[in-house]
Amino acid sequence: MHTFEFIRPADAAAAVAAAAQAKTAQQGADVRFVAGGTTLVDLMKLNVETPARLIDINRLPLDKVEATPDGGLKIGATVRNSDLAHHPTVQRDYAVLSQALLAGASAQLVTNEKHSLESPTAK
Amino acid sequence: MRDDPHARLPNFTRRAFLSTTGSSAAAAAIAGCAPTSHRTAERGSPGAAADGPMIEGAVPVTLRINGKEQRLLVDPRTTLLDCVRETLALTGTKKGCDHGQCGACTVHVKGRRVNSCLSLALMHDGEEITTIEGLGTPDALHPMQAAFIARDGYQCGYCTSGQIMSAVALLKEPCGPDDAAVKELMSGNICRCGAYAHIVAAIQQVRKNS
Lengths: 123, 210
Description:
The complex is a heterodimer. Chain A has six helices and five strands; from the N terminus they run βαβαβββαααα. By secondary structure, chain A is of the alpha/beta class. In chain A, the strands form two sheets. Chain A has a three-stranded parallel β-sheet, covered by helices on one side. A two-stranded antiparallel sheet of chain A has the order 4-5. In chain A, β4 (65-67) and β5 form a beta hairpin. Chain B is an alpha+beta fold. Chain B contains six helices and five strands; from the N terminus they run αββαβββαααα. In chain B, strands 2-1-5-3-4 form a five-stranded mixed β-sheet, with helices on both faces. The termini of chain B are far apart.
C-alpha cells in the first residue's frame, strides 16, 4: 500500500476544501474520501487506488436518513448499510433496497459499509 | 555429554523469532501488508520509540481496546487488524484473507461487528473496540465461548474467534428464530473445516438460554 496523509476535517466545508486541492475524483485520484473503507481500503491494498491524501468523513454529521418533501429519501454519506436496511422507512417504502443491501454482503460487511451517495427517488 | 542447542535458547518463542528476523527482510519484500506500526508509551513524545524503531510518518491514535485505553503511534496504512495483532500483540483476532471475505478478523467496534482487515486504525480514534480477548477469560467464559466448546463448534480453531465475535454480535441483531436465519447472518464467517452445523447449534443454544 502506498502511504498517504490522513485528514479528519472539522466540517463538511473543510472536507470539500481539502478534496478540492486535488485534481480529480476519477479513478486514480490523488485524494479520496473514506467512510466505511470496505472497497477503498481493499483497493489500496492492491495498489489499484493510490491516494496521496485520505479524508476521513466518519465524524461528520452525515448519518441521517430523511424523507424529502418530493417523496424521495435523502441518505447521509456515513449511514451504515446495515442501519439503512433496517431503517423503518426503508423497510416500509423501499423493501427491495432493504433486501438488496442485506443480500449484497455478509452481515459484518454490511456494517462496515457506509452509504456514499444520495439515492434518487426509488419508490 | 552432548551439548543441547535448545538449552541455550530457554525462552526463545516462535513469535519472538519471527518478529526479529521478519522485521528487516520481510518488511522490504511485503511492504504493502507488513506490520508497520509500533507500540509506544507516550503519545507523540520524543522518546516514544524508545522500545522500538522509529516509524517514518507515524501518527498518534488512541484506541479503547477491551476497556483499556491504548495510546499508539501507527503508520497511517495500518489496518485495525494489524494494529490489534502486531502493535498490541492481541493475536486472538486472526488474519485469513485480509480482504473482507472470510470473517476471521471480525471484532466489535462500538458493540457492532466489523471486518477489522478493511478498516484503518486511524478511523477508530477514541472508539471502543472489543476483541476475543475482551469477551471472556478462561475462568469466566462468555456464554458463546462456552457453547462453542459444549457443541464442538470448531476443528482447527483458526476461524473460531471470528465466528464467536460474529455470533455474539448476532444476538443483538434482527434475526429470525430458525437455523436458516442464523446461517444467513453467519455467512460472512468461513470455516474451512466445515464445522458449520455445530456452530449453528452453539449459537442456537445461547439464543434459547438468553
